[in-house]
Design a protein that fits this description.
Layout: H1 2-29, H2 38-46, H3 48-72, H4 74-78, H5 83-91, H6 94-105, H7 110-119, H8 136-159, H9 164-173, H10 178-193, H11 195-207, H12 210-215, H13 223-231, H14 236-261, H15 263-270, H16 284-311, H17 328-368, H18 386-396, H19 406-431, H20 435-443, H21 448-459, H22 461-477, H23 480-486, H24 493-502, H25 506-538
Helix pairs in contact: 1-17, 1-18, 3-8, 3-11, 5-8, 5-25, 6-8, 6-16, 6-25, 8-11, 8-19, 9-10, 10-15, 11-14, 13-14, 16-25, 17-19, 17-22, 17-24, 17-25, 18-23, 19-22, 19-23, 20-21, 22-25, 24-25
Length: 539
């Protein structure tokens, strides 16, 4: 049965979406009217600003987030409760985080208001400080801070599988400092194991559209954003540009994936090849702890400022607090909020359930084959930029999108992305499960299936719940599949938040962003309660 289910999962959520999307895009590229041509490619390459911006974003943001995560990770060994902070950080979708960050750190944000109230040095908002409202730098900051918790979760999962404490002790016995032991002994192995998660982060940074639309520069936009905009223009030249841009994104993705595959080797060559020197006497542990604190405060501050903005009647600069708080805006806007909220909720619940169950089926099949390494084809949808892939889906099922099937296609597209994330989160716990528990249950007369239901499933309750919560958050954050396959008829909190906030209306945008943030946060809190209950039961 597991074999049959795994075949179904492979066909419906891996082979069909990836194969059909890429193949249809390929066929479209040779069509007489919309096909790729040399003139369109030359024009696109001549306008190199968009390509350069995309490359800078896709290289800088992931690698900054990666090394920040590695720098902060030793604290996970000393303070295991820090892992509980990852849940609320992971639960915040990118769009909600971006809106909250701008309300905190834009030139007229709460931070500048606080400085003005204390010092009086900013009677008018400073230009472009501390974060400009529309710039590549702002997009990069948002992506770094949002990918950091995900990479920390991946590092945390790997630390549980490695004898890190033993390695550190042995390295220090040979004269290495604690930090030198971390960077020279532990980090190379972590980088090797982070190759696949980093690939997903790199491709997301290359193809992200909603964040550049929200806080990115429009002159020029990043390439993924421009391809998205061209696809909505009905002229033949715009369609040719969209298809050409999609293939340029695919080529850029291939180059970046090859770079990422060499990351581990380059680290060993340039870092481990250097002579060991006396470390600079800086209290990096303390700085790392402050960074953890900063992330927690930033997340909490984002929720608070979104709530205040959504309840404020008037909040003019440089007032530190709103003039008055009431529910008038909620009451006025609820008629418009209800449909996106309901759509977001049912799409996230069903797609997270499908993705988590599909990941369990694939992992169970791996156990039957005694394969415990990451199986990269499961993650292949994360290694292809979303813009060309979803554009291929839109062209493929375009006829059915106008016949009432939009919501079901959107659900399917969300499940395509919830599966790999659920697989990533669940992989470590599932493959490390001690087979002896099942063997002992079978020796007591249980069948393998009964032992799985009564022994293995309850013991994996916590990691399965975490995988579901991450998948739920991934679904809530989906923008391109919802916008393109939903044809505007399946609005969600994410699509509406981007639409409203990118137009400059942060007050109404804060309503959508707050709800978008609260839905996955509630799920993660529930997961935390499950974990607490499980811990109490085993104590």
């Amino acid at each position: 049965m597991v074999r049959t289910l795994s075949i179904i999962v492979w066909l419906l959520l891996i082979i069909l979406p990836v194969g059909s999307g890429v193949l249809f895009l390929l066929f479209t590229s040779f069509a007489p009217e919309t096909g790729v041509n040399l003139a369109a490619l030359t024009e696109l390459l001549a306008d190199y600003d968009s390509i350069a911006s995309s490359l800078i974003l896709a290289v800088a943001a992931p690698f900054i987030a990666c090394y920040l995560a590695l720098w902060m990770a030793p604290a996970l060994l000393k303070h295991t409760r820090l892992q509980q902070l990852l849940s609320p950080l992971l639960s915040i979708p990118h769009v909600a985080f971006a809106v909250g960050l701008m309300l905190l750190m834009s030139p007229s944000g709460w931070l500048i208001r606080l400085i003005e109230s204390i010092s009086g040095i900013f009677p008018a908002p400073p230009a472009g400080w501390p974060l400009p409202e529309k710039s590549l730098v702002t997009v990069m900051v948002v992506l770094v801070l949002k990918e950091l918790p995900f990479l920390l979760l991946m590092v945390s999962a790997q630390l549980k599988q490695l004898p890190v404490n033993s390695w550190m002790t042995q390295a220090q016995s040979y004269g290495y400092s604690e930090r030198q032991a971390w960077w020279r002994i532990v980090t190379p192995e972590l980088l090797r194991r982070l190759t696949l998660p980093m690939a997903a982060v790199i491709i997301y940074s290359l193809s992200v559209v909603d964040i550049p639309l929200l806080v990115g520069s429009n002159t020029p936009g990043v390439l993924a954003q421009r391809v998205y905009e061209w696809s909505f223009q009905f002229s033949a030249s715009s369609q040719v540009k969209a298809i050409t841009g999609a293939w340029v994104l695919m080529a850029m993705a291939l180059v970046l994936l090859l770079m990422n595959a060499r990351h581990y080797a380059l680290y060993r060559r340039f870092v481990l090849g250097k002579k060991v020197t006396q470390p600079v006497k800086l209290n990096t542990d303390k700085a790392s702890h402050y960074t953890w604190l900063f992330l927690g405060v930033l997340s909490l501050g984002g929720i608070v400022v979104l709530a205040l903005q959504s309840l404020a009647t008037h909040w003019f600069y440089p007032d530190l607090w709103p003039a008055d708080l009431n529910l008038e805006r909620w009451q006025t806007e609820w008629a418009y909020l209800a449909e996106p909220t309901v759509n977001s909720l049912w799409l996230a619940l069903l797609s997270a359930l499908l993705g988590t169950l599909a990941a369990m089926v694939l992992l169970q099949r791996q156990r039957q084959k005694a394969a415990d390494s990451f199986y990269w084809p499961v993650l292949v949808a994360l290694f292809i930029p979303q813009v060309p892939l979803v554009l291929g889906w839109q062209r493929l099922v375009g006829g059915q999108l106008s016949s009432g099937w939009q919501a079901w296609w959107v659900l399917w597209s969300h499940a395509v992305y919830t599966l790999p994330y659920a697989y990533l989160v669940l992989h470590g716990a599932y493959t490390r499960f001690n087979e002896q528990w099942l063997t002992r249950a079978q020796s007591l007369g249980y069948s393998y299936r009964a032992a799985w239901w009564r022994i293995m499933l309850p013991m994996l309750k916590q990691p399965i719940a975490v995988a579901f919560a991450v998948a739920f958050s991934v679904s809530i954050a989906q923008y391109l599949p919802t916008q393109w396959l939903g044809q505007g008829l399946t609005p969600t909190l994410t699509t509406e938040a981007v639409s409203v906030a990118s137009g400059g209306d942060w007050r109404i945008g804060s309503l959508y962003a707050l709800l978008q943030m609260l839905l996955p946060l509630v799920v993660f809190i529930a997961v935390g309660l499950i974990g607490t209950k499980s811990y109490a039961e085993h104590s």
